[in-house]
Amino acid sequence: MQKPCQQCGATFQITPEDLELYQKFEIEPQPLCFECDQKQRLCFRNEHALYTRKCDATGETIISIYAPDNPYKVYKSDYWYSDKWDPLEYGQEFNFQRPFFEQLKELQLKVPRLALNNINPENSDYCNSCIGNKNCYLVFGGDYNEDCMYGTLCMKNRSSLDLDILSNENELCYMLSDTVNCYGCQFAFNSSNSNNCYFISDCTGCSECILSNNLKNKSYYIFNKPYSKEEYFKKKAELLNGSWQQQQENYRQFLELLKRRTVNFANNISAENCTGDYIKNSQNCHNCYDVTGSQDGNNVILGYVTKDCLNSCLLGHKCELCYNIVSGVGIYNTRFSFFIVDSSNIDYCNFVENCQDLFACVGLKQKKYCILNKQYSKEEYVVLRAKIIEHMEKTGEWAKFLPKDLSCFGYNETTAQDYYPLTKEQALKEGFQWRDEENKHIQPQTYNMPDQIKDVPDSISSEIFVCQASTAWGSGCGKNFKIIPQELKFYRQMNIPLPHQCPNCRHIFRMSLRNPRKLWERHCAKCGTTIQTSYSPERPETVYCKKCYLKEIY
């Protein structure tokens, strides 16, 4: 079935697998293409824009994902979870003379919000959407890391910096993305079980390799060519001498190497009847990305152990029968909602935990049979819920995700900007909000950052630098940033030159090495088999089907 997207006008396909899942949710397919649909959900999730503001309950200065001028009430974590306030006090009657979303927005503005989603942190105050981090700084969506900084959606890493999506169980590493169980690696991408490797991609079980890709169980390789152990370490000393200029030249050559490589059409492992990218140990998942241990899912970005999920993103452990969800963990039969934890039978809610049978509620914990934060009996709830849905069908609001103006953030504060970057003009044209940043940056001191890490003094931690352009990494954002003492210690230990870009720009550079969450129909360059791949036809890489790739590379 072909449909025009209501937002961008592009024609998109609704597959038989999509229709089967829509039937489970008893709703009709919505007129939004995958990209426009995901943008609208992702604009509700702010991972890494942090602000200093006052707690509206205690007056204390706190760190929050809500800017000081944000109109929402914000409580610090221990107060929000305490019994010192009751979210049911903000309950309101449903008014059948008014649109549904208008009433839900009123409730959102009244009910206090959690400053940060940072559960059980230890010396890790500047983290968000995290669980169990220890001695971490600016880690977002990453759990159980220790002594890590500047990470996004990374898990169980130790003593590492600049880690991105699906980088798990690494130690003493720097600049990673999609990298698992590596030690002492720098600038490593889509690689696993390797140690002391630098500027590598698509490598497995390797040690002491530099500027190489598609290697398996190799040692002492540079530019994919073997060296003797003595020759290798002599060359390594030249390439990794702690100089910023040399690092940039290495990175430039690495980017050229990526263009010339042969690639597998998809980074899927044990994916039965699946389409998409980075799918592992899953079945019947179509147009899915970064999905693990899941089955019967369509149009999902990042899901871990999910079942029967459609048009959703950032689903944590054990989510089942979910539609139009962003940020959920342990949920069942949940729709049109965001930030839902360990709950079931939820519609049009946000920030609820351990709840059942809620409709249009905000900030509830351990409640059931509530509508607009007002408590009802089970019988009253069932009758009123049905009437509200009938009302929403008449107003054209039913089965649609929350309108963009119900997001608490500007598009440029959210995960949407990471996955689908827009300019301010583009975002406003598409109906998103935008946060204009005030020019309050401190004027940086005129300090020339040393080329060699060995020449950096301790006093560097008191300096302020401007995120600047780089020939290898592209233009900087011009914002100010600092090198904190813990970070400087790591650079010295690993002989890494100081970065000239801020953490956010470094994150953007790493994300640019990942393919877009979009599929194109192509043919294997070796055997001609039709494939669906995230490598667009104009890309320079040679793209093989899985069978030809394994035969050619391994």
Quick structural overview:
With 554 residues, the protein is an alpha/beta fold. Among the domains are: 1-45 and 270-330 and 409-433, no CATH class; 51-118, no CATH class; 133-264.
Description:
With 554 residues, the protein is of the alpha/beta class. Among the domains are: 1-45 and 270-330 and 409-433, no CATH class; 51-118, no CATH class; 133-264. 21% of the residues lie in helices and 28% in strands. The chain is built from twelve helices and 35 strands. The strands form nine sheets. Strands 19, 20, 21, 22, 23, 24, 25, 26, 27, 28, 29 and 30 form a twelve-stranded mixed β-sheet that branches. The longest helix has 18 residues, at 378-395. The mean pLDDT is 94.
What is the element layout, followed by pairings?
Layout: E1 2-4, E2 11-13, H1 16-25, H2 34-42, E3 51-54, E4 61-64, E5 74-75, H3 77-80, H4 100-110, E6 113-114, E7 118-119, E8 130-131, E9 137-140, E10 149-152, E11 161-163, E12 174-177, E13 186-189, E14 198-201, E15 207-213, E16 219-222, E17 225-226, H5 229-239, H6 244-259, E18 262-264, E19 269-272, E20 276-286, E21 288-292, E22 295-304, E23 306-315, E24 319-329, E25 332-341, E26 344-347, E27 350-353, E28 356-359, E29 368-371, E30 374-375, H7 378-395, H8 415-419, H9 424-429, E31 465-466, E32 480-481, H10 485-494, H11 503-512, E33 520-523, E34 530-533, E35 542-544, H12 546-553
Parallel strand pairs: 5-6, 7-8, 9-10, 10-11, 11-12, 12-13, 13-14, 14-15, 15-16, 18-35, 19-20, 20-21, 20-22, 21-22, 22-23, 23-24, 24-25, 25-26, 25-27, 26-28, 28-29
Antiparallel strand pairs: 1-2, 3-4, 16-17, 29-30, 31-32, 33-34
